[in-house]
Design brief:
The complex is a heterodimer of chains A (164) and B (94). Chain A has 164 residues and is an all-alpha fold. Chain A is built from two helices and no strands. Helices cover 93% and strands 0% of the residues of chain A. Chain A is rod-shaped and about 210 Å long. In chain B, 50% of the residues lie in helices and 28% in strands. Classes of the chains: A mainly alpha (164), B alpha+beta (94).
Chain lengths: 164, 94
């Protein structure tokens, strides 16, 4: 070995030194670096998982939001339809009631007018009758001569005679 | 003898024979003798009006006209109430 220029002792010590260096490097550098790398990889994976989770949650929230929105729209539509229907119904009822009241009012007014007219007619008829009788009395008073008077008396006597 | 009294109203003076006949008729009708008191009353217009006690025999023209007036008034009332019935029916059938 000497002839080859290799000092066995030196070689051995160097081998030992190298081994020591390796052991030290492994213990103090490789393991912590590896730990750090693993830790980093885990954090990245967790970050990705969190991002996926967040994405999923966001999608679900979006779906729920759309559903809620649709439901709210539907309810709003139903409320408007109900209100419109109710309004129509009330309008119809008010109209019908107004028509009924107007009809009754007209009917009452017609009856009242008819009644007043008939009362006036009746009063007028009574007046005409009274006047006619008065005129007849006056005419009889003026136009009955003694002859006619005695004929009336004769008629009375004949009738009284018949009624026993 | 105290006779019942008959009050007679006429528009013209009764001739004696008319008075006589009236007396006979009334006495026969009431079956007793009557004292006739004849009043001249132009307001009865014509004919004869007689009252014996509570009984009145109205043969006067005024009485006939009054009867006619009542008859016409009653008839007019009946006709107008019939019209009221008709109009009520019409209003109800609207």
């Amino acid at each position: 070995m000497k002839e080859l220029g290799v000092d066995l002792g030196l070689l051995l010590s160097q081998i030992v030194n190298f081994g020591l260096l390796l052991a030290l490097l492994y213990a103090f550098l490789y393991k912590p670096v590896l730990g750090k790398l693993e830790e980093r990889a885990r954090r990245i994976k967790k970050g990705l998982d969190d991002a996926d989770q967040a994405q999923r949650l966001l999608a679900e929230a979006n779906v729920r939001y759309q559903e809620e929105l649709e439901r709210a729209r539907r309810e709003a539509r139903e409320i408007v339809e109900r209100a419109t229907r109710l309004g129509d119904q009330q309008r119809q009822e008010i109209l019908a009631q107004a028509r009924q009241e107007a009809h009754e009012l007209i009917s009452r007014a017609q009856q009242e007018a008819q009644r007043i007219l008939q009362e006036e007619q009746a009063a007028l008829q009574q007046q005409v009758i009274d006047l006619s009788i008065a005129v007849a009395s006056r005419l009889l008073e003026k136009n009955l001569d003694p002859e006619k008077h005695h004929r009336l008396i004769e008629e009375f006597l004949a009738e009284a005679d018949r009624l026993k | 003898m105290n006779h019942d009294r008959a009050l007679v109203r006429v528009a013209v003076e009764l001739r004696p024979e008319e008075l006589q006949r009236l007396q006979e008729i009334l006495e026969r009708r009431f079956q007793r003798e009557l004292d006739l008191k004849v009043e001249l009353d132009p307001s009865i217009l014509g004919g004869v009006w007689v009252r014996v006690g509570d009984i009145v025999i109205d043969g006067s023209l005024k009485g006939k006209l009054e009867a006619l007036r009542h008859h016409l008034r009653a008839q007019a009332r009946t006709m107008s109430s019939a019209r009221v019935d008709l109009t009520t029916l019409r209003a109800e059938s609207l």
